[in-house]
């Protein structure tokens, strides 16, 4: 799995705090209408490590519906996290990144029969 591939990204390597970077981006794009997404992947990594260190017997499962950004999912997959998927699309997105089905929980309380069949086939 390539952790970062073909995705527009800015790596600041300590030049700015996350807040400073976001503020600079807002100022730069003040006349634009397109949204942008900013994530501190180091913070995501540190929080995952803190979780598994503090509760080693509890396997975290990231709720993809909270943020389905491919970089966040790739990083968490690389770190060994499990995934909480609520739709067929979320399952497909996670599995397309090389995550095996045994690391995915299908956790939508209103499951369509076609989605259950899809999950079973994985």
TrEMBL record:
Organism expressing this protein natively: Adineta steineri
GO cellular component: cytoplasm
Keyword Lyase: yes
Cited Pfam families: Orn_Arg_deC_N (PF02784)
GO MF term (any one): ornithine decarboxylase activity
Co-factor(s): pyridoxal 5'-phosphate
SUPFAM superfamilies to which the protein is assigned, alphabetical: PLP-binding barrel
EC number annotated for this UniProt entry: 4.1.1.17
Family annotation (Gene3D superfamilies): Alanine racemase, Lyase, Ornithine Decarboxylase, Chain A, domain 1
Record's keyword terms, sorted: Lyase, Polyamine biosynthesis, Pyridoxal phosphate
Catalytic class of the enzyme: lyase
Keyword Methyltransferase annotated: no
Enzymatic reactions: L-ornithine + H(+) = putrescine + CO2
Residue ranges of domain Orn/DAP/Arg decarboxylase 2 N-terminal in the record: 42-121
Gene Ontology biological process: putrescine biosynthetic process from arginine, via ornithine
Family annotation (InterPro entries): Ala_racemase/Decarboxylase_C (IPR009006), De-COase2_N (IPR022644), De-COase2_pyr-phos_BS (IPR022653), Orn/DAP/Arg_de-COase (IPR000183), Orn_de-COase (IPR002433), PLP-binding_barrel (IPR029066)
Similarity annotation: Belongs to the Orn/Lys/Arg decarboxylase class-II family.
Pathway(s) served: Amine and polyamine biosynthesis; putrescine biosynthesis via L-ornithine pathway; putrescine from L-ornithine: step 1/1
Oligomeric form and interacting partners: Homodimer. Only the dimer is catalytically active, as the active sites are constructed of residues from both monomers.
Name of the protein in question: ornithine decarboxylase
